[in-house]
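Private note to self, pasted from the team thread so I don't lose it. Backbone tokens:
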């Protein structure tokens, strides 16, 4: 019987999902977990798909490890826990195209790509949705550069490691970009706080003011309703009789 799971590379832990699927097979869960962690140790910090093929008769098993999803490989490269919630505005990292080529080679057999160049474009497309810069540029622009042949040399020769100088430049560029993002975010939060404070001050400046009641406004010329106190006094006043002649 084959059991498919997605585990933390090198850090699989016992849990309900594991117990429910493997427990009934009568195998040693502690040993399975230890073996899985050994098999996936190269994918630490990433989610790794695995398949455990268990022989119900002998209780023996084989572990097959698959390459993590593209998004996981990209996040690992840029040391990010998750992608951006606002990919067009907020960037979470800056990856070298050479590392994109490396990921494309790793995932080539799982991608619907006719060649390495097409695979590289697909990986860059994932960078778009994650909010990751490629070579300090918007990933969408890099897709166009790939199509135009700008990176044909790197792709043709399967260059997978950027130079130390390029790595340093990418890090420097992203540090500046990140600082700018944090500054803009702080300014936006302060503006929202100021707006809320202004609304609260305006409400406090008119104590006792009845809130507007939603509905259709009264037609023009409709007399205002007399206050309840005035109505009460009018009811108490004696009726005046005409004077006798």
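Design output:
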């Amino acid at each position: 019987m084959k059991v498919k799971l997605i585990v933390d590379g090198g850090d699989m832990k016992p849990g309900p999902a594991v117990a429910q699927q493997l427990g009934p097979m009568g195998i040693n869960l502690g040993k399975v977990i230890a073996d899985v962690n050994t098999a996936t140790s190269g994918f630490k910090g990433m989610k790794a798909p695995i398949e455990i093929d268990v022989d119900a008769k002998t209780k023996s098993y084989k572990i097959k490890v698959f390459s993590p999803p593209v998004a996981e490989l990209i996040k690992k490269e840029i040391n990010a826990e998750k992608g951006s919630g606002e990919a067009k505005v907020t960037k979470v990292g800056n990856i070298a195209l050479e590392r994109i080529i490396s990921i494309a080679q790793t995932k080539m057999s799982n991608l619907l790509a006719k060649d390495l160049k097409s695979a590289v474009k697909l990986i860059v497309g994932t960078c778009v949705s994650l909010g990751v810069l490629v070579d300090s540029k918007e990933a969408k622009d890099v897709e166009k550069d790939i199509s135009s042949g700008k990176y044909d040399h790197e792709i043709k020769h399967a260059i997978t490691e950027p130079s130390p100088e390029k790595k340093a430049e990418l890090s420097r560029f992203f540090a500046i970009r990140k600082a700018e993002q944090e500054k803009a975010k702080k300014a936006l939060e302060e503006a929202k706080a100021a707006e809320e404070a202004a609304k609260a001050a305006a409400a406090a400046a008119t104590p006792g003011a009845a809130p507007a009641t939603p509905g259709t406004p009264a037609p023009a010329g409709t007399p205002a309703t007399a206050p309840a106190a005035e109505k009460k006094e009018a009811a108490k006043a004696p009726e005046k009789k005409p004077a006798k002649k």
